[in-house]
Amino acid sequence: MDETAGLQYRPETVAVTAGRPAAEPGQPMNVPLVLASNFRAGTTDSSVTEYARDGGTATWQALEDAVGALEGGTAVAFGSGIGAAAAMLDLVPTGAHVVVPTDSYAGVRALLADGAAHGRWTVTTARNPRSLRWINRLRRLSSWPTGIGRRSQ
């Protein structure tokens, strides 16, 4: 468990200390890097990782703990950008209107098109996502998730 949980530190301190295991003599200060995605199978213990994509790794968990501590909440890391995009789109309510840049990642546009084809939401593409006009259009037309750059509605 992170020994800094619940204490108030400057962001710089949190950035270098969050995600650390409990302090034990002779043990590393930080979670060692786990550079593996597959693990030996053969246990019935469901808490044991056999594939990182399903259960993550100790390194992955430490990253989530550190980012969550920095952001003041709970963080979730993904093994791919499309995995993160799919998770975000899963939060979009049925009947929502989604605005997406015309030059966005093709995989995201495919997920949006699939959701629209199934009646989950409607999609509008817009050019020039860097302009204030585009951001204001996004705010008017879309279901902007709370906690992501905008006040709750």
Based on CA atoms alone, the radius of gyration comes out at: 20 Å
Sheet bearing the most strands, described?
2 strands, parallel
For the largest sheet, list the strands in their spatial order: 1-2
Tally of strands: 2
Range of helix content: 25-40%
Overall average residue pLDDT: 79
Shape: extended
Number of structurally distinct domains: 2
- What series of H and E elements makes up the topology? HHHHEHEH
Strand share of the residues? 5-15%
Count of DSSP helices?
Answer: 6
Q: Whole-Å distance between the termini?
A: 35 Å
Structure description:
This protein has 6 helices and 2 strands; from the N terminus they run ααααβαβα. With 153 residues, it is mainly α. It has 2 domains: 11-71, no CATH class; 85-141, no CATH class. The chain has a two-stranded parallel sheet. The protein is extended, with a radius of gyration of 20 Å. The two termini are 35 Å apart.
Key terms:
2 domains; two-stranded parallel sheet; 153 residues; 6 helices; mainly alpha; extended; 8% strand
Give a quick rundown of the structure.
With 153 residues, this protein is mostly helical.
Secondary structure: elements and pairs:
Blueprint: H1 11-17, H2 52-55, H3 58-71, H4 81-90, E1 96-101, H5 106-117, E2 121-126, H6 132-141
Parallel strand pairs: 1-2
Helix pairs in contact: 1-3, 4-5
